[in-house]
Amino acid sequence: MKFSTYEDWKHCITQRCGIPLAPDYIESRISELKDPKNYHTQKFVDVWGEAHLKRVIGWFEQAKKEFST
Hints:
- The protein has helices at about 5-15, 25-35, 40-50, 50-69.
- It is an all-alpha fold.
């Protein structure tokens, strides 16, 4: 499922999937998604495209900021 807003994405991650957006999880996802050699990142780009990858990285970075405030 491809989301267009941070709120929809966050709801899916935390409510539908039951994954808490904890700092360690956020950091690991950002690191993985920013690694173009990572197999999962390559598959993500194949399915969803580079623009959506950048959007999702931005959403993880936004979630990270929520913890630091």
